[in-house]
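Appendix C reproduces, verbatim, an entry submitted by the partner laboratory led by Prof. M.T., so that reviewers can inspect both the input and the predicted structure.
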Amino acid sequence: MGITMFSNSNAQTTTWFYEAGNGSDYRIQIKTTGSDASVSKVNLGKKGDTAWTETEILSTSDYESYIRVKSKASGKVYELNIDWYDGKITVTLPNGSQVNYWLKES
């Protein structure tokens, strides 16, 4: 008997891009991984930025329809309510206001 290495062919990563619907240039990047499409990373940004702002995922709900993240740059906390079916994210900003983001078609 020998040792067999297994590779998980279902462990693909998908990147989703959302744009703010309020006319601002803000964007959200979400990466999902694996056959169950678990959220592995959430990044924040603005059109024209050279790099994304990384976040730390603080908590998620079942089915990841709610994700709470903290910006690694500013320490500010954002709440994301995600409607995966309609391609919409409602973000509650640190000041309490809300902005809708929409899935960008590629």
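The CA atoms of residues 31 and 41 lie 5 Å apart. Additional entries are available on request from the coordinating office.
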